[in-house]
């Protein structure tokens, strides 16, 4: 079922096999058709990098893997640009190093190499992590700092995952004015482009990345409806990353979210 048939105005997709790092020779004509269709129907989109993409690991597991990740993400950006998408979501990833700062240096180096020579409108969208592999990538401060230290900060934006924010402790799942203020103080909201609207199967600071359908998890209706009505999220691209309903779509979830909006 297409996004607009469900009442949706946005979607997320994998530009290629989400389990691999190979590059894809995409059909530029089909990509142009996708872009035109979305423009005509006022639909926005974001892409998501394949799961093996792990910026934090850098070259610790070999140059070949590193170069494959760089080439793969460059390819994702090219496909996203051709399809008219706002950007490509990417995680910090994780790595076991004696010097924790090395993982952050790896992320900066990786993103700089991916963005070197890039002149398209599609951006890399850093997504906050749930903390299931450690604390890296779970705070607004470090996400903003990584962007500011990049040589290509203008080509980097953010994607907020509500389940990850709750699981990691970034957001308490209720009327968290302190979190909202922190977003302003750090400049996080100014670079927020997309939101993964997910409830959580587990509780606050569980550090578990397990999404639940909206309103059915530990965050619940009150928390999600409060956050989604914040002006800081109003102009973002919202997508769902949870199980589908009985009809095989997210139609019920979309209708529920619309009922929450003031």
TrEMBL record:
One of its GO terms (molecular function) is DNA binding. Its EC number is 3.1.21.2. Residues 3-260 form the Xylose isomerase-like TIM barrel domain. Its cofactor is Zn(2+). GO terms for biological process: base-excision repair. Keywords: DNA damage, DNA repair, Hydrolase, Metal-binding, Nuclease, Zinc. It comes from the Bacteria. Belongs to the AP endonuclease 2 family. PANTHER family: APURINIC-APYRIMIDINIC ENDONUCLEASE, ENDONUCLEASE IV ENDODEOXYRIBONUCLEASE IV. This is Deoxyribonuclease IV. The lineage of its organism: Bacteria, Bacillati, Bacillota, Bacilli, Bacillales.
């Amino acid at each position: 079922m297409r996004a607009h048939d469900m009442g949706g105005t946005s979607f997320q997709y994998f530009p290629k096999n989400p389990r691999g790092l190979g590059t894809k020779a995409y059909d530029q004509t089909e990509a142009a058709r996708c872009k035109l269709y979305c423009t005509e129907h006022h639909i926005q989109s974001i892409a998501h990098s394949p799961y093996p993409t792990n910026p934090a690991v850098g070259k610790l597991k070999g140059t070949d893997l590193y170069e494959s990740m760089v080439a793969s993400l460059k390819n994702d950006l090219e496909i996203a640009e051709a399809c008219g998408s706002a950007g490509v979501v990417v995680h910090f990833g994780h790595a076991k190093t004696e010097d924790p700062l090395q993982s952050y240096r790896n992320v900066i180096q990786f993103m700089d190499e991916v963005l070197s020579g890039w002149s398209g409108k599609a951006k890399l969208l850093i997504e906050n992590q749930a903390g299931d592999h450690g604390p890296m990538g779970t705070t607004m401060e470090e996400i903003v700092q990584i962007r500011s230290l990049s040589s290509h900060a203008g080509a980097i934006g953010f994607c907020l995952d509500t389940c990850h924010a709750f699981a990691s402790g970034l957001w308490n799942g209720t009327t968290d004015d302190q979190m909202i203020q922190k977003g302003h103080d750090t400049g996080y909201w100014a670079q927020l482009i997309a939101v993964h609207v997910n409830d959580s199967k587990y509780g606050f600071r569980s550090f578990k990345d397990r999404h639940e359908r909206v309103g059915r998890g530990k965050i619940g209706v009150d928390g999600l409806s409060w956050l989604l009505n914040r002006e800081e999220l109003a102009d973002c691209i919202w997508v769902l990353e949870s199980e589908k309903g009985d009809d095989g779509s997210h139609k019920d979830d979309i209708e529920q979210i619309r009922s929450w909006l003031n």
